[in-house]
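[scheduler] slot 2 assigned
[scheduler] job type: sequence-to-structure, two independent chains
[scheduler] chain ordering preserved from manifest
[runner] begin chain α
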Amino acid sequence: MGIEKTKIWLEEHFDEPINICSRLVASSNKEDAVELYDYLVSFGMYQPNPTSREMFHQLKDEDSWSKVENIYMKYKVKWSGPDIPVYIFPMRRTRYSKIDHKSGVSFANKMFLFLTPLLDVRELEALIVHEYHHICRLKYLTKPYHEFTLLDSILMEGFAEYAVTKFCGKNYNAKWTSYYNDEELEYFWEKYLMKNLRAKKTEPIHDAILFGKGRFPDLMGYAAGYQIINLLSKKKTFTFRETFTIKEDEVMKVLDSLF
């Protein structure tokens, strides 16, 4: 596994992303490929147009695939992590691209990275650290996907960005880590988060709070997760390896004493 040959796929089917996604689904049903593509687009995957095509050519010129492979292998060895496929695509221009120049999404058995050219190699490392931490933590969480709660998700994001702080430095943390101050996050915790922590991933309120949709502040769940793990690190001694295995109930014991 490791870095998949998406460079070749893009050369052959750049204008047919559904065709590309059909390689990534278990069935031959086109609707499954369309559903996956729509999901990936929501996290930053390119849409075919002259701008994204030029980005692809620049990513090739910068040998982005080799850069990703070097960083991925570094952390796979350092963390004794799973061997999973990594898919690299150009990033589409979204509201997030005004702030960040990269994005990603991970499943238990695969990672997707959406990149722009001229990306600082340390920013690239921060993205991979964040996403690969998800992979490593998911390895130890035996809960079925549909049983994941909002608490599971915000801790997942918090621990992943804690890893970025540790291995890349605070200068490379995602911008959402500083969207809100402690007082604002405490208010969000009491008003929105605390009563919805057990909301399942399949419930609309889960994503609404995590990503900050509708009436909820932008990426509120992500920002709260990072604050929670920072608070946890001050109250509970744990090794970095334990960030893959600490359960939500252990975190809640500490949180109950803080709020």
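[runner] end chain α
[runner] begin chain β
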Amino acid sequence: MMNRVANLTDVVLEASIVGSFSRIGFAVRSGLVAEFRTPLCQQTPPSMAGRTVLITGATSGIGLVAACELARLGAQVNFLARDPGRAETARRRIADAGASAGHERDDVWYGLADLDDLDSVGAFAANLSSRVTGLDVLIHNAGAIHDHLATTPDGIELTVAGQLVAPFVLTEFLLDRLRAAAPARVITVSSGGMYFKRIDIAALAETSPSGYSGAARYALTKRAQVALNTQWAARTDPSQIAFHAVHPGWVRTPGLSLTLPRFARLMGPLLRTPAQGADSIVWLAAADRRQLGSGRFWHDRRPRATYRRPGPPGDPPGMGQALWDWTAGLASRSGAVR
């Protein structure tokens, strides 16, 4: 009876959108649904001692909280950062989190790269590969909304370059390290905003400033991330590497307040804390892989539909393959992936 009530409550929350994506959804689910309560899906994720993690976007917000929690669970945390000052501050906080649970402080390492510069992403991956023999978990968390159109020297819009092509490049470069740690997993942090879009390669490729909306391009890119997650899963032996996409809900972060101030003010106390937003990311990194499968889209520790009603129709057959080919072409054009 309890499970039936929990499942019905979860369905109602998910249909409501606001109830699901806000802190209400997290509060209700964390006290009710099985994924937060049963031994295989513990409230506190199991130890990650001896496991190596790479996370992007770990100098603030959700990424920093996730990195700290992974260190607290015993993982050796590596992260990619752009600014050396912020990176060093984050490194100390992550190391302190690990030390508070009795782990080594020197298990935290970072490298500098700009996700908008695909060659620097390749150089970062080569540097990391020289330091680790295996990579258990790769987390693509970095994300930003740009308030005006800008492109890389290769002519790729910055949101697409940093949040679609760069993760593709990083995954491609690190496949051998992921396979060496098999069973490994790759986690892509998407957004509930992707529900308002369908895959649109022409819109992703658009570089005209006329009518540019940073929020719309962000949502398009987040939709594409989920589609590529499915493609990676279909092309990869899940016993070697599993692929997961997850959306954290509506989280109060400095980035949200800066780029979507009206939304941040409107939602106010309903916004999740960064710790609530990071919960499913950490859980996916640590949970028993037998319950997770591969190629799914997650929210609050449960797999979710990638399209919902009301919303745009699903994608026609072959669109995921077309997106893969287009993204791989951009990565190859940059010279980062041969």
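[runner] end chain β
[qc] chain β: The CA atoms of residues 111 and 127 lie 8 Å apart.
[scheduler] slot 2 released
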